[in-house]
Amino acid sequence: MPRYSRRSLLALGGMATAAVVFPVRDDPPAPDLASSLPPLRDRWREVTAGAGVTEAATAVARHLGTMAPARTSLWPTCRSPP
Which of 32, 51, 57, 76 pairs with 19 at a CA distance of 20 to 30 A? Predict the structure, then answer.
């Protein structure tokens, strides 16, 4: 009978324990990104731009229509972005 070292027995026991604790799945479930991305996007917007961005965005959208170049503008031939 071959004599096994303690190191090899510990490694074999560790692999057996890992196989029991973390079984291999044939097809892992696909993440549901459609429901998880909007809250994450809102949180990152709040973290990076600060709270109240949506209120500022609605104010910008409200005043965007009034931003049209006139004859007395600095660059009257350049269009403002829509």
Answer: 32
Burial (CB count <10 Å: 0-12, 13-18, 19+), residue 45: middle
Backbone angles phi, psi at 59, to 5 degrees: -65, -40
Cα–Cα distance measured from residue 24 to residue 26, given in angstroms and rounded to the nearest whole number: 7
d(CA 49, CA 53): 7
pLDDT tens-place string over residues 16-47: 999 888 877 778 778 777 788 888 888 887 88
- Percent of the chain at pLDDT above 90? 11
Q: Which residues have CB under 8 Å from 46's CB, separation 6+?
A: 53
H-type helices in 1-82, by residue range? 6-21, 33-49, 53-64
